[in-house]
Amino acid sequence: MTAVAVAGPLPALPARANRARRYLRETALLVGRSLQSIPRVPERLSDVTIQPVMFTLLFLYVFGSAIHIPGMRYQDYLLPGLVGQGLAFGVIGAGVATSTDFASGVVDRFRSLPVTRLSVITAQVLGQMLEQVLGMLIVVAIGLGLGWHPHLTAAKLFELVGLILLGLLAFTWFGVLLGMLVRSSDAMQGLGFAIMLPLSFLAGTFVPIAGMREVPRAIGEWDPLSSLVAAVRQVCQGTPSSGSWQLDHPVPAMVCWCLVMIGVCAPLALRRFRKMNTV
Amino acid sequence: MSEVDLAVSTEGLTKRFGSFSAVESFDFTVERGTVVALLGPNGAGKTTIVRMLATLSEPTSGRAVVCGHDVVAEADAVRSVISLTGQFAALEANLTARENLVLMARLRGYGHPAAACVAATLVERYDIGEFQDKLVKRLSGGQRRRVDLAAGLVTQPELLVLDEPTTGLDPRSRQVVWAAVRELVAKGVTLLLTTQYLEEADALADKIVFMDRGRNAATGTPAELRAQIGDHRVDVVASDAAGFEELVVALSSSFKLTLAPERRTISVPAPREALDLSTVTGQVVATGVAVDEVGLRRPTLDDAFFAFTGSPAQLGAGQVEVDEEMELSA
Predict the structure, then answer these.
(1) Over 70: is that where the pLDDT of A3 sits?
(2) What ipTM score was computed for the predicted complex, to two decimals?
(3) What is the CATH number of the domain that holds B252?
């Protein structure tokens, strides 16, 4: 054994900063860790890249020929829908990444360090959000390449970005909470699809809710994702939707849904994180 | 001894998962500057105890104090003096070994250049150089364990806790781990280690705490425990069940036997080692019963179990799964 004898002293540890500064610093470090690992697991990005691209192509060129939306081209109907769906599918990515992290023991390592616990969970949410933003940019780029024409003024663009970030934040918190409750990433993947896939199909993503039969229409009118999709569509294309209060007022409805989701999921996730103490 | 002189002291420490009691009224102490081994079979509650000491898990009742800080009330203070290296390497799989060390150092509070310097020192000290730029997910189990140990030592802890540090390690990694541990102990770091190997506890620890189903079954120096367990043993393995019965009858008149009928094995204490081996062999040969094996061996955890609990070890791998599953779902 060669190296063991070499033992220079470690540098002295700097004095501890105050709690708020430590929180910001630790969060930044942990978000950095998430971003650093993205290029090393390209398959992790497939959820936010290949999948939406596949949906775009399938619906635009396979189903699109049979779907006629009165008064607008199908790509202008579909793309805002896919942006909304992308937001919602962030739940799955965030959930899988979270359950993987918690199962691997690396979160236990962070928890055994003198690191503020809030920073571990904030970093989890922010890291996942950034990953989803990357996916969102890819969808938008593909959409524009395939002839999507959003009608956006600077103010509308600002509104759109704000809505998307709020939506991502809400759905990422939901995903992180699910990922903490479901301790296997395979189960999380399955559960995520089982919840999100039907909800996203009912949400007027690909075909208008108004044309659906009674039962799916009733679900679609009150599906939280419907407000998301309708809100994005209204801001991008100025297309109104109708059928229920939330569809008549998609933007405030979406903001309400998101605030409710954050208000419920964030405290539950934080509590769960502290509670894991008792595990 | 006051709490100031103790790195660890517990009083009635208890952890239950539903109706299952993983740790029950567990009292023990670790004096500063000493090495204490928690010895016990899988499922005895060793990991549950170290998780409570490392503030990863809260006691159901009772109390634990680490270097003067209560693990519940002063968890943050405990975290800054303790370092835990678990059974399963807790590293970011998609970062390289060195990046993990830098991250840990920075999370401990080092600035960027200092963190790089700490990582370089640890890479050298724990013989990580040849794989420092490999992603952790591509490392072998032994290499990961070395990185994991180093990651726990970015600052010198007052109390180092190693949970089964050599289980599943190749000889080279095991040597690196032990050399590192001895060096730390020489520097005055207090060490609490858990192990299933009697030999390991015997070789390293100043004090051994023997655990059985969540309880402290025996505490003492290795010499004290060895005196209770007995030294060497002679094992006789009969070729068939009938032979086993016959040998039990023949040997029980002159020896205190420990029996494992499912393996047709009779175990005889052999304090006089080779002399006892020859006596037992003589008696076995005299019966004319066919045997597969007669051999002298060092005492194992099974023997310790028998000596302290009066029954053979019952907790096998299955129990661990239950234990962990309960931890996960609780």
Answers:
(1) no
(2) 0.81
(3) 3.30.70.100
